[in-house]
Write a structure and sequence with these properties.
Elements lengths: L7 H13 L4 E5 L5 H10 L3 E5 L3 H8 L10 H9 L3 E4 L10 E4 L14 H13 L5 E4 L7 H11 L10 E4 L18 E5 L2 H12 L5 E4 L2 H32 L3 H8 L23 H11 L5 H27 L8 E5 L14 H11 L3 E5 L5 E4 L2 E4 L5 H6 L2 E4 L8 H7 L3 E3 L12 E3 L1
Helix pairs in contact: 1-7, 5-6, 8-10, 8-11, 11-12
The protein binds nicotinamide-adenine-dinucleotide.
Nicotinamide-adenine-dinucleotide binds next to helix 5.
């Protein structure tokens, strides 16, 4: 049933007006690493934001103004909740009250490295049940090109409303880099694509309210591909330096010295660094979304497969190297005490999803080592049958370990102290650069 009351252009004009004067109500579905900072940014400029979060604990915490995401400032969340600009709920009954609905739910892979769009689909079906004319639905989750048109659109059209005429559908991929102090959502260019020109128009109006540079592209599909390409670019370049690391190890060269020298070239090169593998919700997963979609077109994305293969080798290589370092001191890995520094997948954040550090710990345990870890951001974790609690970092703890493996280079750790107090160090991040010593081995 199309809107009898207002022609399509009026529906769009009315929505844009509400967005421009901030009377539009914004719904954010999924209040995680992406959704909660997004909600706070919108509230800060005066939008009323309602979070729809299936985890009742998280919804309660938001309503009590208790922050659980590192990139959100406690006082900004407190201020927004106090002013009544942010509230959270667990159900979709509020959808008819909303003018803009932004979807920020997980897009994982299943066990066969194929996209698992169950969250996007179930949320879209719920939104469709309550959809009314004049709304903009925007997908922020990372996904393969075609998701808006092939997955979301049919579910939304089941409402009887027509896209571009009654409601609008767009994709604007989140590019947040957790822990990055220089670039936040606000000052990072935002790519936006609509399933049609009116959807694009509505989405550009919405995103321009809080973001300095909005980059419109011709379709939702182009926006979807842009995001997965960006993460593929990163995965491939990390794989390239990881491959160089494996080669340098055989050549008896320091990959760090070679990279530092290479990156002095002021053009035609870009710094990427090796490590014990890749982690988080993006780099190890997103390229496989594109790989899967390409197969539908009988096309093989060879770089993606190769990058995944090389990056997945790195935890095992790290453990092999740990064994070699211990061997050099006459200690068998199977009898060694190993302290791993860092459980998060990258420095200065608390996210340990897909973390290579945890894979390194699992492999060390599998080889018989007694493993403990320290991470100021990850007090405990339970993964792959491993249940560990972070050990406080003291000189005695370092000295008690046969080997200290620096897996994540959090800035708050004193690496001079680590080098001074430890018997042997395997540094996978070049965190001890300023403290070279014979008992320190770089990856
Ligand atoms: N974390 C990042 O750095 C990052 C950066 C860019 C893009 N992304 C993408 O953004 C998306 C979200 O990632 P994230 O890291 O914020 O995930 P997250 O797991 O931190 O948050 C997702 C939230 O959605 C909630 N949720 C799940 N199903 C729901 C449902 N049916 N209804 C309501 N809420 C539901 C979860 O409880 C959770 O709180 C993913 O596609 C991811 O690839 C993430």
């Amino acid at each position: 049933m199309s809107t009898a009351q207002a022609p399509a252009s009026d529906v769009l004009a009315a929505l844009k007006q509400k967005i421009a004067d901030k009377t539009a109500k914004v719904g954010v579905v999924g209040l995680g690493y992406v959704g909660l900072p997004f909600a706070v940014e919108k509230a800060k400029v005066g939008f009323h934001v309602i979070g729809i979060e299936q985890n009742p604990r998280r919804a309660d915490m938001v309503n009590r103004a208790e922050n659980y995401i590192g990139d959100v400032h406690d006082e900004e969340l407190r201020d927004a909740v106090k002013k009544g600009l942010i509230a959270a709920t667990t159900g979709f009954d509020v959808v008819p009250e909303l003018d803009v609905i932004v979807v920020c739910v997980p897009t994982p892979l299943n066990q066969n490295l194929a996209p698992d769009l169950q969250y996007v689909s179930s949320v879209t079906a719920e939104v469709a049940r309550h959809l009314r004319p004049g709304q903009l639905v925007s997908l922020e989750s990372t996904t393969y090109p075609g998701t808006c048109e092939e997955v979301m659109l049919p579910l939304l059209e089941a409402s009887g409303l027509k896209v571009e005429a009654d409601y609008f559908l767009a994709h604007s991929p989140e590019r947040v880099d957790p822990g990055n102090k220089r670039y936040s959502t606000k000052n990072t260019h935002k790519v936006v694509g609509g399933v049609g020109p009116r959807s694009l128009d509505a989405a550009v109006e919405f995103y321009s309210q809080t973001i300095q540079n909005v980059i419109p592209v011709s379709s939702a599909k182009a926006a979807e591909l842009t995001k997965v390409f960006e993460n593929t670019f990163r995965a491939v370049n990390i794989a390239l330096v990881n491959e160089l690391t494996l080669l340098c190890d055989r050549m008896g060269l320091s990959v760090w010295e070679v990279l530092d020298a290479a990156f002095t070239k002021p053009f035609g090169i870009m710094p990427f660094y090796p490590g014990p593998g890749v982690g988080g919700h993006c780099i190890p997963l997103d390229p496989h979304y594109l790989e899967w979609k390409a197969r539908e077109l009988n096309f093989t994305t060879r770089f993606i497969g190769l990058a995944g293969e090389i990056n997945r080798m790195m935890p095992e290589f790290t453990v092999r190297k740990a064994g070699r370092v211990l061997n050099g001191a006459g200690i068998a890995l199977s009898r060694a005490k190993v302290l791993v520094l860092g459980a998060a997948y990258k420095k200065d954040i608390d996210d340990w999803r897909e973390s290579p550090s945890i894979e390194v710990m699992r492999l060390l345990v599998e080889q018989g080592a007694r493993v403990s870890y320290h991470d100021p951001y990850v007090p405990s974790f339970s993964e792959h049958g491993l249940e560990l609690v972070s050990t406080p970092l003291a000189p005695e703890t370092l000295a008690a370990a046969d080997l200290v493996v620096i897996a994540t280079d959090h800035s708050s750790v004193d690496y001079g102290e680590v080098v001074r107090a430890s018997k042997l160090v395997l540094d996978t991040r070049n965190a001890t650069k300023m403290h070279p010593a014979p008992h320190v081995t770089l990856l």
